Amino acid sequence: MSQHDHGAQPVILPPQEAWGVIRSLLNPVTYLKFAKEHPIMALILIAGFIVTVNRFFIGGLAGTTNLDNNNPWGIWISFDLLCGVALAAGGYTTTAAALIFNIKGFRTAVKPALLTAFLGYAFVVYALLYDVGQPWRLPYPVFWSPGTSSVLFEVGLCVMLYVTVLMIEWLPNFTDWVGMQKISHIIHKCTIPLTVMGIVLSTMHQSSLGMLYLIAPGKMHPLWYTYQLPLQFFVSSMVAGMSMVIFEGTISHKYMHARMSPEYNRDHDGVMFMFAKACSIILLGYFFMKLVPIAGDNKWGYIFHGKYGLLWLIEMFGFVLLPCFL
């Protein structure tokens, strides 16, 4: 089965017209017109440009973030890395369901899920350029001085490889558009190996992100700290990724359904329901996964004591158990 069966059918333009569109995208005049038509977006980009200049050329990391050697991680890097990677997990879950387990209902969502994952991981990598102190040294831990005993080394290596895999999986959308069907045909032959590689890499770095706090037990409350953190993070990433596919798929279907294939529009509601049903089942399993270490280590007393116990109850019943039945 080729990727042409997934979602909208590719729009194939004559090569001259396709490359004309690409040249217009590389022309600064195009973006000046866009800024004039969308002033709010232009203001956001200008503000981002000012912050970028301050980050890299004036104030540096400390002047921009107010971090120091005693507090090297801000809440935003946790959001960028931990939340961003989890929200982009829809790619490996959808491709695994559609191509490995051959669940036909998910096939039409493969392309949107891959695009979501590719953009999500690309944004995570881009955000890291702002988060780390010396972004030009990002390749060093991989190629020059590998820290093989570090959890972050494994995360960085797997994310780098997985972004490459996602780019290759998404590439047929571009090559079909510009009329390079031979390249698309070659990539289609590698669909299953690429899917398997993506699943393995995702499993490794998603669980490793959960492992980050295993080496810092003092940073977490006992209600959340457990040796099962890697597995819990991996399972929660499945829910986060599929939820993001539902969110983006619903918005794109509402505003761009005219550009999608009749098959995708026909199956959209059913596919979104299948994603929601899968999320409910996984969330229910995640709820019991959270209870097992509480019972095993006899931490029941923490639940009904203090504000952290209240926060745990709100998380478990308000954001885990309640969505299972909505």
From TrEMBL:
The keyword Cell membrane applies. Keywords: Cell membrane, Membrane, Transmembrane, Transmembrane helix. The chain crosses the membrane at residues 40-63, 75-101, 113-130, 150-171, 192-215, 227-249, 270-289, 309-325. GO terms for biological process: anaerobic respiration. The keyword Transmembrane applies. It is a multi-pass membrane protein. It is found in: Cell membrane. One of its GO terms (cellular component) is plasma membrane. This is Ni/Fe-hydrogenase cytochrome b subunit.
